[in-house]
Amino acid sequence: MMRLRPFSPTDISDVMKIVGSSMQEKYPASMFLELHNIWREGFFICEYFGSTVGLIVGTLSGFRTARILVIAVLEPHRCKGIGTALLNEFTNACGMKGLSNIELEVRKSNKGAIKFYEKHGYQVIDIIPHFYNDGEDGFKMLRNL
Questions:
Q1: Residue 127 lies in a domain
Q2: What CATH number is attached to the domain comprising 9?
């Protein structure tokens, strides 16, 4: 059914499809390949019945801190535990690395994502004015490990 695995560069077309259909921000494929080169342990893919349906990618961002840059699941596969599985896998990788915190940014208007992160122990710690390309503010959220 569901299988989590590390990202491989051969996954880039699936990653771009998922990101393109799930997020308002647009990112080049080269960014994902570079992030994979920087911290391979922070980039996971979810396959569901053999199809790539979700991903999480993060980076090391400071002393004992990781930052989730993207978590996305294709619309038809949401609410099946895929986002939770990806977040847990990333959290475990951070713990194995000896990290203490995970941070992320989320649109203030994305109530579903905010609720999802709060359910998993994240708290809003700051507002980031005009964080997104369209001028929307973001919340900075943090979870201590």
A1: no
A2: 3.40.630.30
Are the CB atoms for 113 and 56 separated by under 8 Å? no
pLDDT exceeds cutoff 90 at 137: yes
The answer to whether the beta carbons of residues 95 and 144 sit under 8 Å apart is no
Length of the chain in terms of residues written: 145
| Residue-level pLDDT at 20 | 93
d(CA 11, CA 36): 11
pTM: 0.94
* Location of structure tokens 């979700």: 54
Task: Over range 71-80, report the average pLDDT.
Answer: 94
Question: What is the token pair recorded at 80?
Answer: 């099946």
> Tokens for 93?
């990788």
Residue 62 confidence class, pLDDT cut points 50, 70, 90? confident
Q: How far is CA 34 from CA 59, 101, 136, in A?
A: 11, 23, 26
Domain, as residue range, for 93:
2-102
Domain tally, the chain: 1
State the amino acid at position 122 in one-letter form.
Y
